[in-house]
Amino acid sequence: MSTPDHMMTMDDAGPDDLNSAAMAGDDTKSLKAAENAESRLVSAASAALSAELTKPLAPGLYLVSTPIGNLADMSLRALATLARADMIFCEDTRHSRKLLSRFGISTETHAYHEHNAEKERPRIVARIGAGQAVALIADAGTPLVSDPGNKLVRALRDEGLPVFAVPGASAVLAALTSSGLPTDSFCFEGFLPPKSAARRKRLEALKDIPATMIFYEAPQRLAAMLEDLAEVFEDRDGVVTKELTKLHEGHIHGTLGELVNRALEALSAKGEFVVLAAPPRPVEVSDAEIVSRLKVAMEAQSFRDAVKETTDMLGVSRKRVYDLALCLKGGEGP
Hints:
By secondary structure, this protein is of the alpha/beta class. It has twelve helices and ten strands.
């Protein structure tokens, strides 16, 4: 059969045409592979959620973490727990109902906040004592972190009733792990007092803690809070984060003094802020100071106890104190 003039045969095709055809074929294969992988992921997630939904939910209080801004951070276990619970308690039922509706969860909701906690707490304890599974959620993030609920958990523990954590999103940990500041030791303070005098007094009590400090702050107080923080904590490193996991997420790094000016310039003063401050810089302790402490300690206690007490008191290495103590014991001096 003859070939029409406008059609190209394999014999007529040049190297560039063959390469283009091969690349198009590779793109089609890659697209199909991606679609298959996506389909497998959706199937696996659906199967995992279905499996969770079929499990009976034991009586108790479930502290369920919810997204802090990105709905995709909702865990499968959290969805299944909220769907199976007999009742959900939340700070603001209108706010939480929007979240639950997005996932098709119709569990009954009731308010639990600082204004009604004294009245609702015994009722919740009674429900769980009667065999119900009750969930507690915050407006966003992990319950009990700068939110009501601690007294409820204590009341349940006192009655010997179970409390379960359903972990998930947390602004504290998200800010800490993305900050670049030390993560081996940290202290979460939450919101500082709104008045400057009280705020500075609290900061003075916190400034020597050898850990990364984490604070929440409202936009209208951010500038004043940063000024007090820089004044009391001096020129250590810090980070200000805004709207974590949301569209307009922002991170500003610098010394605390720099952050006073840069944070509000670079971040619009809206949304929720997490402020972090690095641990205080270590203070150098001289050998003479260690020896002076050791002399006093060794007069009143054993060699071993004197070394331990001096090490703990000055925050220096035990080996350094031990070596200096040996010199003192042998009469050599440091």
